[in-house]
């Protein structure tokens, strides 16, 4: 029963749409500007640096909180990972947005920050390097999370591999359109406005 409650709480936590809340406080409907996405990248494009930082922080912390609650309840690494996945799913398919949402990158990093801190750091560094050289946030996410299962194996062994594979699958699925735009040369760069 405790495991089910954990997954439900994690999904609700993940569903909190920080980007929408912060944009609304500034009188902006985030779904109608920029890419229409609810994450920090679109907030940056549409509202600027500080609202984007606040959105990023909120989206990271809800992933961290889900895994932290699992750890506090002593459910073990598998269910900690599943709590994290549940929070990511909540972000991607928010209860408060008609089961629509973001792409889960920041929330996934939040999950990893407590689930496997070394892997979180490596994933962030890979993302940062790709973004610095290409200016594409989406490409950074695809590359860094594409390598996640390998990095988890290196740092944690097989015990946490299931969660890593599921996170990678979710990130790739949510970036399908970005992958198409990258291939077509029409993907927007970080900070680029419409």
Model description:
With 194 residues, the protein is mainly alpha-helical. α3 (40-47) packs antiparallel against α4 (49-73) and α6 packs antiparallel against α7. The chain is globular. It contains eleven helices and no strands. The mean pLDDT is 93. The protein has one domain (2-184).
Quickly describe the structure:
By secondary structure, the chain is mainly alpha-helical. It is 73% helix and 0% strand.
Based on DSSP secondary structure assignment, what is the total number of beta strands?
Answer: 0
What is the first-to-last residue Cα distance? 48 Å
Number of helices: 11
Beta fraction of the residues? under 5%
Give the number of domains.
1
Average pLDDT taken over every residue? 93
Radius of gyration equals: 16 Å
Q: How helix-rich are the residues, as a percent range?
A: over 70%
What's the story with the biggest beta sheet? none
Structure classification = mainly alpha
- Shape, principal axes of CA atoms: globular
As residue ranges, the low-confidence spans are none
Q: Summarize the helix and strand pattern as letters.
A: HHHHHHHHHHH
């Amino acid at each position: 029963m405790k495991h089910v409650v954990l997954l439900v709480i994690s999904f609700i936590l993940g569903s909190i749409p920080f980007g929408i809340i912060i944009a609304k406080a500034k009188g902006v409907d985030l779904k109608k500007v920029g890419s229409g996405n609810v994450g920090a990248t679109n907030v940056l494009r549409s509202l600027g640096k500080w609202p984007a930082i606040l959105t990023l922080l909120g989206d990271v912390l809800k992933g961290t909180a889900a895994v932290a609650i699992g750890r506090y309840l002593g459910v073990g690494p598998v269910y900690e990972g599943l709590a994290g996945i549940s929070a990511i799913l909540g972000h991607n398919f928010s209860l408060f947005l008609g089961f629509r949402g973001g792409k889960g990158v920041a929330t996934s990093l939040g999950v990893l920050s407590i689930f496997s801190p070394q892997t979180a750091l490596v994933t962030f560094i890979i993302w940062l390097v790709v973004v610095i050289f290409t200016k594409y946030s989406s490409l950074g996410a695809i590359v860094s999370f594409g390598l996640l299962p390998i990095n988890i194996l290196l740092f944690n062994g097989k015990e946490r591999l299931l969660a890593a594979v599921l996170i990678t699958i979710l990130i790739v699925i949510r970036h399908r359109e970005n992958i198409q735009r990258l291939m077509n040369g029409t993907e927007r760069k970080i900070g680029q406005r419409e």
